[in-house]
């Protein structure tokens, strides 16, 4: 018993050593066999790689290797044909007379072949991209954010001869066809012709040699796409041979509209007037960096920079834009301007902009942009001069903060927000006006001279700014403390005919102090009502009633007044304001339009006088409300009503 037990450990130890030796021998035999794997056994693996997930038809004529024993043999595949996937239609995706590549056998067996030397002869490849973005050179159904997870193989040598490619991109409306070659003398070269957006187009791509080049060294390239629809050039260098994942380049682009450039870069840009842009860019895997941008869109001149990052399935943008001049009409193409002109012709000119705020087509994009516009241009008379602020986008909530709008006199500050997380877009504005001249804003000459302040807090829902404000709730106020009014106008405001006629005769340019002007409107479902609308001068006071309907921008206001002093004869008719915000019509106390009231004819004055005398004698209709108000009105508590309006 003791003898057996003493021999057991030695027996077990010898048995284990024999097993280990056998395993090592088997592994060594496998390793040796792998070094001499027949090329015919690799044919199935190669076919599987070419088929991909789409399970397309693949034909391979023959597979051979350059040596009997090598762990990195040169594998040659002849007479290869790969059919198009079913969705791409009939025909072949790829035909190759012969292709040889040096590969590691273990990598091939593991399905992770990374050739570092390739010879291709007689290549004919047809690249197709559908309107939905599906690509016949990918296994996935659409563009994927994961496309860079498996980087392209590092090539130390590449030679392509007697080869041709075609590219049909239905999403970009781009078709190209031409020869492609790579050799040790001329490097890479591709020249193609075709169409882009139904216009003739040519493409030229050149790059450095590959044979004998350090695969990690900077690799120069040039690209030129020329078409009446877009003239695009790029020159730069990749960080490694044919490493399109990382490169820097200088770009220039000219096109009838920015949207044509977007067809190529697919950044979600919009139609504009003609562009002439230059930029320095850097591409790192999924991220893009515009380090310097300058150029023009129409007559607008701009510069800037931007970082465009891909994180967690979302696009994050951080940008700075500076425009020496900007015309907002430049941010629409001819078709957009034509639609706006047709709409204007149909409904008339409008103050409220028809700018679209619907973000339903906005992808998963976040970010912020600081913008500065030194000079705003317009083909129509405008009080707007400059603009700056910060635009941010976070999960379909757009905010414009630190907003400063420079006016002809004064400025407007505040914030604007569009929330499109659910339902129709919700617009919210909070704007404050300071230091503006009333005459600059409403073009009243010197009838009233005053510096005004204002506050606009409106919110509503709609696909455009106009639609949202046509249903808005909130308030819109404009106030003035101090200033002066032409004396004749102040008397008309007080419906004091004798005072108005006296000033017209004695001193038509005389002025009286303005104590305050308050136009405080409450908004409910797009209807503005005075709360209050009042003007207080040294000699008269007036109060308004009525409404402004933002749907159609229709005005219907009446301003009734009274004289603070003696009034020998009262004007019967009040001041009426009608028409639209863009073309208001002011009927001044029976004298007709405001222009006629400044220099009334003798007939107009006699007409008003006759009606006033008749009213004083009790002849004709009388308005009890007017009669109640003509008694010497009390002055407004200007401080209180102004403070209430600005809250």
Notes on the structure:
This protein is α+β, with helices and mostly antiparallel strands and 647 residues long. The chain contains 13 helices and 31 strands. The protein has a 31-stranded mixed β-sheet that branches. Strand 10 (230-239) and strand 11 (246-255) form a beta hairpin. Helix 8 packs antiparallel against helix 9. The radius of gyration is 39 Å and the shape is elongated.
SSE arrangement:
Blueprint: H1 2-35, H2 39-51, E1 58-65, E2 74-83, E3 92-102, H3 105-109, E4 117-129, E5 157-169, E6 174-183, E7 187-196, E8 199-207, E9 218-227, E10 230-239, E11 246-255, H4 258-265, E12 275-284, E13 287-297, E14 300-311, E15 314-327, H5 334-347, E16 365-373, E17 376-377, E18 384-393, E19 397-407, E20 411-419, E21 426-437, H6 438-442, E22 448-449, E23 451-461, H7 465-469, E24 473-481, E25 484-486, H8 487-493, H9 497-506, E26 511-524, E27 527-537, E28 540-549, E29 554-563, E30 575-579, E31 584-587, H10 594-598, H11 602-616, H12 624-629, H13 638-646
Helix pairs in contact: 8-9
Quote the beta fraction: over 45%
Number of helices: 13
Helix amount, in percent? 10-25%
State the low-pLDDT regions, or none.
28-32, 141-148, 594-598, 612-619, 624-630
Distance from N terminus to C terminus (CA atoms, Å) equals 106 Å
The major beta sheet can be summarized as:
31 strands, mixed
Question: How would you concisely characterize the structure shown here?
Answer:
The protein is of the alpha+beta class and 647 residues long. The protein is 21% helix and 45% strand. The relative contact order is 0.04.
């Amino acid at each position: 018993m003791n003898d057996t037990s003493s021999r057991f450990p030695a027996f077990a130890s010898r048995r284990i050593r024999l097993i280990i030796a056998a395993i090592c021998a088997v592994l060594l035999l496998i390793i040796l066999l792998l070094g001499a794997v027949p090329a015919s056994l690799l044919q199935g693996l190669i076919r599987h790689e070419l088929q991909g997930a789409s399970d397309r038809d693949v034909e391979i004529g023959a597979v051979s290797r350059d040596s009997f024993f090598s762990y990195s043999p040169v594998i040659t595949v002849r007479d290869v044909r790969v059919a198009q996937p079913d969705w791409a239609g009939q025909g072949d995706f790829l035909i190759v007379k012969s292709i040889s590549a040096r590969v590691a056998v273990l990598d091939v067996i593991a399905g992770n072949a990374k050739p570092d030397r390739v010879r291709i002869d007689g290549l004919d490849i047809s690249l197709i991209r559908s309107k939905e973005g599906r690509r016949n050179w990918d296994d996935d159904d659409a563009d994927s954010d994961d496309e860079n997870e498996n980087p392209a193989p590092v090539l130390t040598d590449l030679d392509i001869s007697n080869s041709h490619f075609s590219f049909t991109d239905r999403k970009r409306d781009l078709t190209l066809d031409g020869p492609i070659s790579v050799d040790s003398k001329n490097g890479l070269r591709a020249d193609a012709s075709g169409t882009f957006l139904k216009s003739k187009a040519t493409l030229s791509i050149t790059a450095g040699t590959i044979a004998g080049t350090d695969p990690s060294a900077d690799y120069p390239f040039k690209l030129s796409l020329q078409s009446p629809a877009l003239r695009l050039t790029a020159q730069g260098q990749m960080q490694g041979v044919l490493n399109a994942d990382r490169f820097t380049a200088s770009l220039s682009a000219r096109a009838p509209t920015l949207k044509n450039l977007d067809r190529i870069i697919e950044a979600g840009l919009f139609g504009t007037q003609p562009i002439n842009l230059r930029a320095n860019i850097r591409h790192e895997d999924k991220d893009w960096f515009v380090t310097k941008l300058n150029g023009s869109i129409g007559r607008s001149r701009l510069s800037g920079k931007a970082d465009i990052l891909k994180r967690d399935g979302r696009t994050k943008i951080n940008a700075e834009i500076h425009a020496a001049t900007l015309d907002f009409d430049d941010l629409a193409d001819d078709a957009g301007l034509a639609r706006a002109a047709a709409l204007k012709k149909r409904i008339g000119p409008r103050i409220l902009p028809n700018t679209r705020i619907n973000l339903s087509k906005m992808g998963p994009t976040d970010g912020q942009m600081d913008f500065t516009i030194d000079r705003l241009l317009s083909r129509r008379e405008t009080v707007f001069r400059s603009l700056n602020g910060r635009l941010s986008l976070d999960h379909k909530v757009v905010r414009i903060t630190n907003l400063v709008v420079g006016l002809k006199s004064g400025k407007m500050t505040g914030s604007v927000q569009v929330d499109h997380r659910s339902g129709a877009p919700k617009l919210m504005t909070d704007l404050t006006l300071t230091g503006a001249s009333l005459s600059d804003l409403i073009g009243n000459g010197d009838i009233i001279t005053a510096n005004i302040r204002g506050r606009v807090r409106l919110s509503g829902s709609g696909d455009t700014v106009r639609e949202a404000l046509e249903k808005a709730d909130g308030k819109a106020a404009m106030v003035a403390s101090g200033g002066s009014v032409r004396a004749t106008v102040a008397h008309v405001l007080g419906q004091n005919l004798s005072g108005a006629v006296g000033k017209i005769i004695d001193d038509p340019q005389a002025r009286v102090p303005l104590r305050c002007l308050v136009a405080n409107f409450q908004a409910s479902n797009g209807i503005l009502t005075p709360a209050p609308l009042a003007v207080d001068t040294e000699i008269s006071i007036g109060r308004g009633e009525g409404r402004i309907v933002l749907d159609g921008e229709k005005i219907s206001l009446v301003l009734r007044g009274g004289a603070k002093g003696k009034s020998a004869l009262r004007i019967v008719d009040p001041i009426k304001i009608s028409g639209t915000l863009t073309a208001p019509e002011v009927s001044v106390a029976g004298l007709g339009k405001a222009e006629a009231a400044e220099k009334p004819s003798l007939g107009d004055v006699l007409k008003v006088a006759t009606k006033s005398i008749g009213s004083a004698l009790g002849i004709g209709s009388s308005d009890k409300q007017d009669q109640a108000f003509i008694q010497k009105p009390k002055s407004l508590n200007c401080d209180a009503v102004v403070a209430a309006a600005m809250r």
